[in-house]
Amino acid sequence: MTSAADPVFEAGEFSRFKSARSFAAWLGLTPSEHSSGESVRQGGITKAGNKHLRRVLVESAWHYLGCSPHPKDLAKGQAPDPAARRHAAKGARRLVGRRAAMLERGVQKNKANVATARELACWAGPLAAWPRARSGRGRAGIRSGHPTSGRIRGRWGGPRSLFLRAPQAPPA
């Protein structure tokens, strides 16, 4: 439970991040790059940004080592949002599959775990946007004329409204 709440407490307002990539960069989970002319070399993660949240996500990513890619049955009386449930199932399948593919290719366990943590961070952003994006705005959660009314979808299939700035009120 603490791991789920930490991104909200540490990151604060997710709308300040332009994309899931910028959120991962803020966490320091993106690879460093040493480029010169034609040569491009990537190194380890940058470790810039929020150390606590980076540690929490890396620790959480270890749980995807033995995780089932199939969603579990709901307990009696549970009724989560179907869209959030689909998004979670898709995310779990992707994380388990990517980690398995990396380990199969011979990538070191720790390196595969950090890559899984980065994927987890990129997956959590759109999911965090749903409650706010859907509140009081009708069935789709998006007003017509809003910058996200074109139903922009992220890499994970979730709405990217979290990463787009809210429209500013015109000056009076």
TrEMBL record:
GO terms for biological process: DNA transposition. It comes from the Bacteria. GO terms for molecular function: DNA binding; transposase activity. Residues 133-172 are annotated as: Disordered. Residues 4-72 form the Transposase IS116/IS110/IS902 C-terminal domain. PANTHER family: PUTATIVE TRANSPOSASE FOR IS117-RELATED, TRANSPOSASE FOR INSERTION SEQUENCE ELEMENT IS1111A. This is Transposase IS116/IS110/IS902 C-terminal domain-containing protein. InterPro entries: Transpos_IS110 (IPR047650), Transposase_20 (IPR003346). Pfam families: Transposase_20. Signal peptide: none annotated.
